[in-house]
Specification:
The protein is an all-alpha fold. The protein is built from nine helices and no strands. Helix 2 crosses helix 4 and helix 4 packs antiparallel against helix 9. The chain is elongated.
Length: about 230
């Protein structure tokens, strides 16, 4: 029961998500309150109609409307989070390649990070860079944890290699073999990403095609029945 409530009614890490996505928490709460009020009104109308018409389906519809109104804003944030993760995956190879290029023309990590800010790859990356730079300048002895927090924004397996590269550069300097390993891993991930996305697109096209055919057959059968 607790798992059910946590999954369908609670809003875990809401404050963190709002900060990461640049969402005003007060505006979020205000929008949610408006949605809840509208949902309650609509649900009450459908419930009243259900009683008058003695229709159980309208009661079910009222419950669905009330629940959706309660969850609408949080579900929107979850979609934004997913879309942001997908965008970061697309930008990640370009970001890393730019980082590597800057490494060979600048003598320290802070300078490289500051230059990366100017590229404005994505608002999410911009915020993460600012946080990382500030923490690193104040507490460089905790570089391993600081770099780990930054690399975690990229939901990909090669991010661990990027993390290790940053740690080693801060301690020992640039290592060409580590960079080559990271580039190879990213190239493999890109190939896998393209194959996966192509398969997903094909599957969706097939599903939409099946739905269209099904709807066509249903309409055709209805027309035949009406004509009889």
């Amino acid at each position: 029961m607790n798992k059910f409530i946590a999954k369908y009614f609670k809003e875990p890490y809401l404050n963190v998500l709002c900060v990461e996505l640049g969402i005003d928490i007060l505006k979020y709460k205000k929008s949610k309150q408006i949605n809840i009020v509208v949902g309650i009104i609509l649900a009450a109308i459908f419930a009243f109609l259900a009683i008058i018409l003695k229709n159980v389906l309208l009661i079910v519809l009222a419950v669905i409307i009330a629940y959706y109104s309660y969850r609408k804003e949080f579900l929107k944030i979850r979609r934004m989070e997913k879309n942001t993760r997908d965008e970061l995956l697309k930008i990640y190879p370009i970001f890393v390649q730019t980082f590597i290029s800057l490494l060979y023309t600048n003598d320290n990590l802070i300078k490289v990070f500051l230059l990366l800010e100017n590229y404005h790859f994505h608002p999410y990356i911009d915020r993460a860079l600012v946080i990382m730079i500030n923490k690193y300048q104040v507490n460089p002895e905790n570089s391993e944890l600081i770099f780990a927090e930054f690399c975690n924004i990229f939901n990909t397996s090669s991010a661990s290699l990027l993390h290790q590269l940053l740690v080693n550069i801060s301690k020992y300097g640039v290592n060409d073999s580590e960079i080559a390993l990271l580039e190879t891993k990213i190239e493999q991930e890109c190939d896998k990403y393209i194959i996966t996305k192509t398969a997903q697109t094909s599957k969706k096209s097939l599903q939409y095609g099946n739905i269209a055919v099904t709807l066509f057959l249903v309409v055709l059968v209805m027309l035949v029945i009406v004509s009889l």
